[in-house]
Amino acid sequence: MRGAIIVVAALFGCMGALRTAHPESPAERDNAEIRSYLPTDARLHAYFAATRALRSAVARDPALSSDCGAMSQAQEDGRLATLYRSLAAHPRCYAFFRKKGLTERETGIWMTLVFWMSQYAEQPEQVAQLAVLSAPQAKFAQEHRAQFEKFMRQFSAGADPSRFE
């Protein structure tokens, strides 16, 4: 009898772990995927460099601008799966990130992380309450606060992308 109780307890424990590892709602799955990503300096710089290059090219190429505008509109639901499909459907836009060594998955995650890390750098208490960043991501955001603030300031002000660092 004791053995059966241990087996049942172990089974329920495994089911709980599986439930945690595989959240049920798409939003929970997205959040888990984003929170599991460990940012690095190299990947951050690759993302920023690709974004700079893309933004500069878009300023010179109306067809690319239109393509990337369509890519952005296709992401309206905010889902990672939609974002990945959108990147795949707009290879001219994604090519800038691929050239810097970022996969579609990393590009999509960085698009989300840059927003949340920038917000965390400015309002850590409010963003922490939302639980959108893992502890390592929050620490990374604090350590790179100046870079995130500058990046967001330049983009929101429409600064010349060729001058981004």
Layout of strands and helices, then pairs:
Layout: H1 2-21, H2 26-36, H3 41-60, H4 62-73, H5 80-89, H6 91-99, H7 104-122, H8 124-130, H9 135-143, H10 145-157
Count of separate DSSP helical elements: 10
Number of domains: 2
Q: Extract low-pLDDT stretches.
A: 1-21, 160-165
Radius of gyration: 19 Å
Overall strand count: 0
Q: How would you describe what is shown here?
A:
This protein is an all-alpha fold and 165 residues long. The chain folds into two domains: 1-36; 38-163, no CATH class. Helix content is 79%, strand content 0%. α7 packs across α9 and α7 crosses α10. The longest helix has 20 residues, at 2-21. Mean pLDDT is 80; it is low at 1-21 and 160-165.
Keywords:
165 residues, mainly alpha, 2 domains, 10 helices, disordered N terminus, disordered C terminus
Q: What is this entry, summarized?
A:
This protein has 2 domains: 1-36; 38-163, no CATH class. The protein is 79% helix and 0% strand. It has helices spanning 2-21, 26-36, 41-60, 62-73, 80-89, 91-99, 104-122, 124-130, 135-143, 145-157.
